[in-house]
Prior knowledge:
6 helices; 42% helix; single chain; 5 strands; alpha/beta
Amino acid sequence: VDAGGVRRRYQGRNKQQKDIALFDKDVTETIEDLHEDGEDAISLDVQTFEFIKRANDYVFVDFYATWCSHCKALAPTWEALAEVMDDVAENNVKGHRDDYTPEDFEMAKKVEQPVVIAKIDCVLHPDVCSRKQNIRAYPTLRLFVDGEPWKGGDYRGPRTLMGMVEWMQIVEELHKEDLGDNDEAKKLHKAHEGM
Length: 195
């Protein structure tokens, strides 16, 4: 039951979490090593979160808590994901960094639209996390499409570069189909108005 007395569906952690990879074991660098050339996963606060959702079609956000051991374990994988997606978005094909494999890069190129990889520290920004986004477990990986949480729910698959990129590719294809359906519906509606 929420604050308004309305019964809502609980969006808790994946009960099968023991069955998934909690981070990518192929990313061997520490978060400090990955940050030597700057942070690629964008840190957001209340204002920047709203701005980035409006300014980008796809925003993938890691809602984390600094005290959470799973969040700490995921941090290098998340940063490597941000680096590979940035490289793909910028078409920086000069060679891949050591943070991800050539296979990861090739998979990421299949995602046609740029995806902003971001993170929000829920300890510092509880208003965004618990109040506005109803985050109850850490880390929560949520993709925003056109400013709204993806209708298929939060990411619950393996927390590997390949797993997350493959999921983003599927979401992108589903989103394109939805837009196509909407365009067709609009055409039909206009055709019927003219009759």
